[in-house]
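Supplementary Text 2. Reproducibility record for the structural model of the 208-residue chain.

All settings were left at their defaults, and a single model was retained for analysis rather than an ensemble. We include the record here because the model underlies the residue-level annotations in Supplementary Table 4.
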Amino acid sequence: MNNELTATGRGNNGGPLHRLYEWIQEWLQTPYGVWVLFLVAVAESSFFPIPPDVFLMALCIGSPKKSFRYAGICAVGSVLGGMFGYGLGFWFMDIAGSRIIELYGLADKYELVQELYQKYDAWAVGVAGFTPLPYKVFTITAGAFQINFPTFVAVSLVSRAARFFLVAALIYRFGAPIRTFIERYLNLLTIILLALLVTGFVLVKFLL
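Retained model, structure tokens:
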């Protein structure tokens, strides 16, 4: 994502986004850390530039036994934020939705997302929610294209939970040393797991 922080939380030039990232990391160390994670997850799904994965990792490493709880909070927040993004696209696409997309330099992806919705309907949201694709663009455009809302919510919940619980499971199992590996290969891991899931669905459909 052009102007967003990468999965490791490091900006392209160490500018305002990097300072914002550091500031949020400090808040995570306070008793309000869980709420900070929740709010970041909500905001990232519709307009915020920093992915919640990096903050989820920080909390999980601080308390590995609570990793799955943190992942659940992150998933719920992300879906709620996705619902807000849907509303932006449904009611305020011209006023706000399109401006958010342009802000992140993703206007050229709009037609591509439209084609994905025409082909795969709400399943396109599932792919975006689980992989490195810009989830906020999909949530906003889902509203603009009036994708079935209950299906949108259900697919979002499954895909976002899968991504965040993958992070939580790795840290729960391997602890802090796995952080560098996750930061480097999270996107690849999620793509591989998504491919396995899709293959499973295809095999089940074919065999049945």
